[in-house]
Specification:
It is a single chain. The chain is 16% helix and 41% strand. It is α+β, with helices and mostly antiparallel strands. The strands form 3 sheets. The protein has a 6-stranded mixed beta barrel with strand order 1-3-2-6-5-4. A 4-stranded mixed beta sheet has the order 10-7-9-12. A 3-stranded antiparallel beta sheet has the order 8-13-11, with no helix packed on it. It holds the Pfam family Ribosomal_TL5_C.
Length: 202
């Protein structure tokens, strides 16, 4: 399943000074935790990480970490960046167990926006990612929402989004009052929506 493979070394020297030295040597300090095992401090090559993270899938795919000859499957749980330089300063990885559900976020891809906005309509995105739980094998790379299928003036909520089998929205699982808005298709300014036009005609 994973097309993202990173070589990592176990980090012995810990602390702020050690991390600073690693970054000067173009290395990224990281930690690996989860699956009931001990936390392991790691070092990765910064150039490989910075190149790989340009791909959206880096944040949603299951990655393979090669640590001293052992392959470990994990997902990115947190990424820290330098405030103004194009540098990654720290990574958190969570181990993946095929039998245990993972809790993560996946991006929302809004498709057919050009078709939906041809008449001057505008699209308002309320979220860019959805928090989910699922087994590792069911993890989607992204969730798709077809904007052209939305009626003018209507809003798509989490409950309207088709999630793959086995994938559960964390917010919706909390109850119906957590049914967040995802995207709205607005009529051009000064124009009435279909519903308003119908009401005016009655």
């Amino acid at each position: 399943m994973s097309q993202y493979v990173l070589d990592a070394e176990v980090r012995v020297e810990l602390g702020t000074g050690a991390s600073r030295r690693l970054r000067r040597a173009d290395k990224v300090p990281a930690i690996l935790y989860g699956a009931g095992k001990e936390v392991v401090s790691l070092t990765l090559d910064h150039n490989k990480v910075i190149h790989m993270q340009e791909d959206e899938g880096f944040y949603t795919h299951i990655l393979t970490l090669n640590i001293g000859g052992e392959s470990v499957e994990a997902i990115v749980k947190d990424i820290q960046r330098h405030p103004y330089k194009p540098k990654i300063t720290h990574l958190d990885f969570q181990r993946v167990d095929a039998s245990q559900k993972i809790h993560t976020k996946v991006p929302v891809h809004f498709i057919n926006e050009d078709a939906a906005t041809k008449g001057g309509n505008t699209v308002a995105h309320h979220v860019t990612e959805i928090e989910i739980t699922c087994l590792p094998a069911q993890l989607p790379e992204f969730v798709e929402v077809d904007v052209a299928a939305i009626a003018v003036g209507a809003t798509v909520h989490l409950s309207d989004v088709a999630l793959p089998a086995g994938v559960v929205s964390v917010e919706l699982a909390k109850g119906a009052d957590h049914d967040q808005a995802v995207v709205t298709l607005n009529a051009p300014k000064g124009a009435a929506s279909e519903e308003e036009a119908e009401e005016a005609a009655e």
